[in-house]
Design a protein that fits this description.
Layout (H helix, E strand, L loop, with lengths): L7 H9 L5 H19 L2 E4 L1 H16 L11 E5 L27 H8 L3 E6 L11 E2 L3 E2 L1 E2 L2 E5 L5 H8 L5 E6 L5 H7 L2 E2 L21 E6 L2 H11 L23
Parallel strand pairs: 2-3, 2-8
Antiparallel strand pairs: 1-3, 4-5, 6-7, 8-10, 9-10
Helix pairs in contact: 2-3, 5-6
Length: 254
Amino acid sequence: MSNYPVTAHACLKAFSTGQVSAHELAADALDRIARHNPLLNAFVEITGKRALAEADSLDKRRKSKEALPALAAVPYAVKNLFDVESITTLAGAKLLSRNQAATRDAVLVERIRSAGGLLMGTLNMDALAYGFTTENSHYGVTHNPHDPLRTAGGSSGGTGAAVAAGLVSIGLGSDTNGSIRVPSSLCGVFGLKPTYGRLPRTGSFPFVASFDHLGPLAGNVEDLSLAYDAMQGHDRGDPACAQRPVSTTLNTLR
């Protein structure tokens, strides 16, 4: 078992107080992924070099006594319908593997990165987000970490499994007809399907534009609030995104 923290708020506290470096947190998360992902098949792509580079940048900021962002040194991963710079956005479909790599991150990935999150990779899903079991014909079945013989749910099954297994502190998923709520329930984690329009979908592969929601999954409500607060705000790239001020939630939990 690792001696490093796994929850987002514990990672943030340990890093900000100097108990552990961001590099150590990133390396530990990558080790957990290497050990457990072969059984779970939660990850489609692991972005180890990027995670370590982001961690080293944060370590320099802390050494320089700069103010640290809200998710500093927190490992996270995203459903593979989110654009990630230099990676082809698969949305679980082999057909899309022929596409060019994304030239920039999705807006929510940009916001998590700005908040100090460490991107560990992209996560398995039902093809084109059409399904509830993450039994992907091209990229394999994602297994429930509580019982590998059972489903992790879908379509954000890789996200639910990665969070439930402690491979990352926070996962980003999407929900059109239950795709955050189903894997959250079956994997025993917390998931948030925000009010329509509260989080921008810019840079994500659409399923049904008038129903698509993006949102976080986490192991507890505090971590969910940390992620949600970091991602709020209008973005004109999504015409359905609400033009309203950020309304933080973490302060309402205390």
